[in-house]
Design brief:
globular; mainly beta; 126 residues; four-stranded antiparallel beta sheet
């Protein structure tokens, strides 16, 4: 069964850090572009970051540049999202997703992704 499972979310104070994990089962994560998205209550799902399969190139939303880092651990079949200097506006459910078809770069639009995880809640509050 093809599956993505996110973990690592939780409650953190402003300025704190979290590392989210996106673990794949049933397929090799390194062969596909992987994106991280988030959705806050009452808002649309938005792209946070993505990493390509071809050359490891990355993309970040302007709101997280310099604070978030996406990376792969091929041995663990996992993609990570390291989040530093967290702000209350980062509060959301975070999802990872895999794109089966893109061969270069990584998409930033949710509809281009084919397999989604169940999400993990991140809450930034004092």
């Amino acid at each position: 069964q093809l599956q993505l499972v996110e973990s690592g979310g939780g409650l953190v104070q402003p300025g704190g850090s979290l590392r989210l994990s996106c673990a794949a089962s049933g397929f090799t994560l390194n062969n596909y572009a992987i994106g991280w998205f988030r959705q806050a209550p009452g808002k649309e799902r938005e792209a946070v970051s993505c990493i390509s399969s071809s050359d490891g190139s990355t993309n970040y939303a302007d709101s997280v540049k310099g604070r978030f880092t996406i990376s792969r651990d091929n041995a663990r079949n996992t993609v990570f999202l390291r989040m530093n200097s967290l702000r209350p506006e980062d509060t959301a459910v975070y999802y990872c997703a895999a794109d089966w078809f893109v061969t270069t770069g990584c998409p930033t639009r949710a509809y281009e992704y084919d397999l989604w995880g169940q999400g993990t809640q991140v809450t930034v509050s004092s």
